[in-house]
């Protein structure tokens, strides 16, 4: 397996990175938070590309809004990219919950197991990833000198508990449970999975009709009828309620919320004029457009969030420094694009390093807004 020349690795040291999930060059609203926190999204400034496909004038590194949805899809802006990570400022600590634990300085507190246990996020078949992740586990064994065994688990709560009790040492935690793992289990998120082009995650887009001159920014939702997908949906309801409120627009107070039943129903309802606008999952509506069920040139996007991270890869904080270094190397120094890992995860065969406080800030905003308490009883299946 060829090694991966990981150019980003030099950007990070001791697990801290000079990155965040804000956009370089985006216009800030009110100068950012008073405690120095970066803004959570791009903003709706006028775009010269409105009304056409605009692909030649749209700069993903310095986005302006509104933009035709067709332009964003053409530019691949439905996902995040490595440049989104590389160009961001660092957050020194998480806005909500505990920071990542430091490696103990006392040798007596370090963990040096004979075997390393690895687990992916729970699925209907907990052992399904055993074969898929074998190339990665082989490299963990190579880099650490330890035998690595796959540890299938059946729920988020059992995964967090296994790491808390030191029975699980390396794990891929789903987006929502990642802060639980940090706060309860001593997990150190250090990497995200990316494609060969560096794509990861998805965004929240605020969509309206391309010819709707009344809505060109988030603040224009005042008094409008806006489709949210379902009450339990992250990007279709929970995220906009948190992120919009942080920008001064409170769903249900500043505009009427109408539940559509899903992202496809939301965007098609906007296209048909049933709703004035809708917050939608970018990759979801891109699939609707690619399937021929929506003409994206008839929709414009007036606001976009920073990328939502996907599965975080973590290790327990008190593993010896040598084991930690080997684990990181097994992820970030190798290219898995020609393995089952990429085949299973939609081309995402590489790993890039992250800092939890910055990369997960958008998730922590949502959990803070929703009053999430980090207890294992609050983890779903």
Care to describe what's here?
Strand 1 and strand 2 (16-17) form a beta hairpin. The protein has 13 helices and 14 strands. It folds into 2 domains: 22-87 and 204-304, 3-Layer(aba) Sandwich (D-Maltodextrin-Binding Protein, domain 2), CATH 3.40.190; 110-198 and 310-378, Periplasmic binding protein-like II (D-Maltodextrin-Binding Protein, domain 2, 3-Layer(aba) Sandwich), CATH 3.40.190.10. The strands form 4 sheets. It has a 6-stranded mixed beta sheet with strand order 5-4-6-13-7-14, with helices on both faces. Strands 3-12-8-11 form a 4-stranded antiparallel beta sheet. A two-stranded antiparallel ribbon has the order 1-2. It has helices at 69-74, 82-86, 129-132, 134-144, 156-164, 178-185, 234-246, 263-271, 282-290, 321-332, 340-344, 356-359, 361-369, and strands at 12-13, 16-17, 67-68, 115-119, 147-150, 170-173, 187-194, 204-209, 225-228, 256-259, 277-281, 299-304, 312-316, 350-353. The protein is α+β, with helices and mostly antiparallel strands and 381 residues long.
Please state the CA-atom Rg, rounded to the nearest Å. 21 Å
- Determine and state the CATH class of the largest domain: Alpha Beta
What is the helical fraction, as a range of percent? 25-40%
The total strand number stands at 14
Number of helices: 13
Would you identify the CATH architecture of the largest domain? 3-Layer(aba) Sandwich
Kindly report the spatial arrangement of strands forming the biggest sheet. Answer: 5-4-6-13-7-14
CATH topology of the largest domain: D-Maltodextrin-Binding Protein, domain 2
The CATH homologous superfamily of the largest domain is termed Periplasmic binding protein-like II
The low-confidence runs, each spanning 5 or more residues with pLDDT under 50, are 2-40, 47-55
Order of helices and strands: EEEHHEHHEHEHEEEHEHEHEEHHEHH
Question: How far is it from the N-terminal to the C-terminal residue, by CA?
Answer: 35 Å
Largest sheet: 6 strands, mixed
């Amino acid at each position: 397996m060829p090694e991966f020349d990981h150019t980003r690795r030099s950007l990070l040291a001791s697990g801290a990175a000079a990155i965040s999930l804000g956009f370089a060059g985006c216009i800030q609203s009110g100068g950012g938070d008073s405690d120095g926190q970066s803004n959570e999204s791009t903003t709706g400034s006028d775009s010269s590309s409105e009304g056409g496909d605009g692909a030649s004038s749209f700069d993903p590194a310095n986005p302006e809004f509104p933009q035709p949805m067709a332009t964003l899809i053409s530019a691949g802006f439905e996902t995040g990219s490595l440049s989104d990570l590389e160009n961001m400022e660092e957050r020194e600590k998480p806005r909500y919950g505990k920071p990542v634990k430091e490696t103990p300085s006392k040798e007596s507190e370090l963990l040096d197991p004979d075997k390393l246990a690895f687990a992916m996020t729970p699925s209907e078949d907990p052992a399904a990833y055993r074969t898929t992740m074998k190339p990665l586990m082989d490299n963990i064994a190579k880099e650490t000198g330890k035998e690595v065994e796959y540890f299938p688990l059946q729920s988020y709560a059992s995964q967090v508990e296994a790491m808390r009790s030191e029975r699980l040492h390396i794990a891929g935690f789903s987006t929502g449970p990642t802060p639980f793992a940090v706060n309860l289990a001593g997990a150190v998120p250090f990497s995200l999975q990316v494609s060969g082009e560096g794509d990861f995650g998805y965004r929240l887009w605020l969509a309206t009709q391309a010819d709707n001159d009344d809505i060109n920014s988030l603040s224009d939702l005042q008094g409008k009828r806006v489709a949210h997908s379902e009450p339990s949906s992250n990007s279709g309801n929970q995220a906009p309620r948190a992120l919009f409120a942080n920008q001064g627009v409170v769903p249900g107070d500043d505009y009427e919320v109408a539940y559509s039943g899903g992202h496809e129903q939301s965007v098609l309802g906007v296209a048909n004029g049933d709703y004035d606008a809708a917050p939608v999952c970018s990759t979801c509506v891109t699939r609707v457009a690619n399937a021929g069920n929506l003409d994206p040139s008839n929709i414009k996007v007036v606001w976009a969030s920073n990328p939502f991270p996907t599965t975080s890869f973590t290790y327990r904080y008190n593993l010896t420094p040598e084991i930690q270094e080997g684990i990181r190397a097994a992820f970030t120094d190798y290219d898995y694009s020609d393995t089952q890992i990429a085949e299973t995860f939609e081309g995402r065969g590489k790993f890039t390093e992250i800092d939890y406080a910055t990369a997960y800030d958008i998730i922590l905003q949502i959990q803070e807004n929703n009053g999430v308490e980090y207890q294992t009883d609050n983890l779903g299946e």
